[in-house]
Structure prediction request, 178 residues.
Amino acid sequence: MKLGQLILMGPLVLAGCMAATSDDLSGVHQSIQSRFQDISHISAVEFSKLDRDEVIVFDTRPEAEYAVSQIPGALQINPDISGDAFLTRYSSDIDGKKVVFYCSVGERSSRVARRVKEAAQKSQITISAYNLEEGIFGWHNDRRRLTRNGEVTDMVHPYDDKWGRLVERQDKVSYGAK
Prediction:
């Protein structure tokens, strides 16, 4: 390829890279998946097909975000919980189940999944841990069911203005009580 062709292609290549990075939720997930290759990622479609009796779901967002809405049945945990603390608290609950972690887009939940996986390996505990692809934002964008205090809601916490732009229905974002 000649230098002139490369110069002309530059903007196209740059545009393609930008589209595949953090300009949309899919690009964000691709970035997360590339950095957390040691973690299993599960799509909302695959997750929805699982027998709910065989799955336990953990929301790794702070309480303020969880209070706005959550995936039905999700238990809120501190996003900074250590793998050892998680296993101490939940090992009897997760025994024989698939464990799915989520947050807004998948970053915090992937970190938790990694810590839990590493602690389980050290303790010789077998765990099937997954990060929910695209997090609660993807779930919300797909118009899947969310709850708040046991009631159905269509609101979601946007984390902040930067990340909240990934929520398609901007009229459905809430920071909760201030």
Remarks:
- The domain at 39-172 is CATH 3.40.250.10 (Oxidized Rhodanese; domain 1).
- The first helix runs from residue 3 to 19.
- The beta strands are 40-42, 55-59, 75-76, 98-102, 128-132, 146-148, 151-153.
